[in-house]
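pls read this stuff:
=====
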Amino acid sequence: MIKKIIFILLMSFLGVNLFAAVQVVKIGYADWSSSIATSYTVKAIMEEKMGVRCRLIEMPADEMWKSVAEGRVDAILSAWLPDTHEKYYNEYKDSVVNLGANLKGTKIGLVVPQVPAGRFTTGTGIQNKPYMNIDSIPELKQYKTKLKRRIIGIDPEAGIMLKTREAIEKYNLDSFRLTSISEQNMLNELERAIRYKQWIVVTGWEPHWIF
């Protein structure tokens, strides 16, 4: 489930002339590291270089799209298109303006640790094999017991969660349950699993600092 995505900026029709129409530009963002980084960067540029006041408003992915379509926020910078947020775009495309990509070549998928068991190298200097030997989604079924029949994801309405549900159906992973927690809690689970060499599979995307 690796897809190339274009990360685009969307504005509400109500906010196309927002620089002239409002005193404060409202930008909706999700509690994902990529969305936070992009939104705060744009906020800094708008305020420091353009003299435009900017307010960031955190919300779930589905609410983010609905808010920009209804004009409750003026823009979002976390529209993962054409695939991951396809559902939301089709629902709201008549009420938003696509201003183009701000990030290209991104990917989503299911992620497992690629960390060697024990020391990183043997006495010969050859790197040890990872303690998890999964290279594809279909292989998850083979190791369902070690993985505790669980895939750990982020907020339930995030595009990557919608695509993960599709992957579960496509690859007959119905014995797995998809757990929804915050991105930070998911990363905490991943860190703990790596520390104790436990088996785990999580949702992941690039760019992200874990890679």
User: Anything to note?
Assistant: The chain has two domains: 3-107, 109-206. Residues 1-8, 12-18 have pLDDT under 50 and may be disordered. The beta strands are 3-12, 24-29, 53-58, 75-81, 96-111, 150-153, 177-180, 202-206. The chain is about 30% helix and 25% strand.
